[in-house]
């Protein structure tokens, strides 16, 4: 078990530190550096310790990826449902806006100048009232949508925070056990959730 193998294993363990750049964890980084120093200082302990703890760290990192992906997937599904929920209202506002514009544009088809301007004057006055109603109604809908999206965002934030907390706690705990093993203590049995599946 040479130093090249040790370095290769430490590089693999390093994947559990950043998890594709999603987390920046100084404490875990420090523990990983300690692992490297201890493995160089106690090379005879390295094979047994890495055999026990590397698979655990790999599974912790993999679980974090799974949890993080689930948070994003759930958010995307909820956002899509929210979009679908309000699509009908959006179509109605679009139709009303187009209808109002058509009413004014119809004035341009009148031949007589006097009649044309009278048409614009009347249509403009009537449609301004109509547009004000559209504006007020749309403002109310916008407030509701913003609140719905805020709740979805909050759920995602909680989900991600839970995934990150579990990752940090489990990784930190496992690195501490690895470093304890590297200085000569007996390897501890992995928790049930990280035990090797037969």
Protein described:
- It comes from Drosophila rubida.
- There is one protein chain.
- This protein is mainly α and 198 residues long.
- It has helices at 3-18, 26-41, 46-105, 113-182.
- Helix 3 runs antiparallel to helix 4.
- So what's the overall shape? rod-shaped
Q: Which residues form runs of ≥5 with pLDDT under 50?
A: 1-22
Mean pLDDT: 83
What share of the residues lie within helices? over 70%
Question: What characterizes the major β-sheet?
Answer: none
Q: What structural class do you assign from the helix and strand content? A: mainly alpha
Distance between the termini: 26 Å
Strand content: under 5%
Number of helices: 4
List keywords for this structure.
single chain; 198 residues; mainly alpha; 4 helices; rod-shaped; disordered N terminus; Protein TsetseEP domain-containing protein; TsetseEP; signal
List the helices and strands and how they pair.
Elements: H1 3-18, H2 26-41, H3 46-105, H4 113-182
What is the gist of this entry?
The chain is mainly α.
């Amino acid at each position: 078990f040479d130093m090249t193998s040790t370095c290769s294993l430490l590089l693999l363990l390093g994947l559990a530190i950043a998890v594709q750049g999603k987390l920046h964890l100084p404490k875990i980084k420090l523990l990983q550096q300690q692992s490297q120093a201890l493995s160089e200082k106690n090379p005879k302990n390295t094979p047994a310790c890495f055999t026990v703890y590397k698979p655990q760290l790999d599974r912790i990192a993999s679980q974090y990826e799974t949890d993080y992906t689930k948070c994003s997937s759930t958010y995307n599904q909820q956002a899509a449902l929210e979009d679908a929920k309000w699509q009908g209202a959006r179509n109605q506002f679009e139709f009303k806006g187009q209808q109002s514009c058509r009413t004014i544009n119809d004035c341009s088809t009148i031949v007589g100048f006097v009649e044309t301007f009278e048409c614009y004057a009347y249509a403009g006055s009537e449609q301004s009232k109509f547009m004000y109603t559209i504006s007020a109604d749309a403002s109310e809908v916008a407030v509701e949508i913003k609140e719905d999206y805020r709740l979805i965002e909050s759920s995602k934030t909680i989900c991600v925070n839970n995934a990150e907390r579990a990752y940090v706690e489990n990784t930190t705990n496992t690195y501490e056990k690895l470093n304890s093993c590297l200085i000569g203590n007996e390897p501890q049995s992995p928790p049930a959730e990280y035990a090797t599946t037969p």
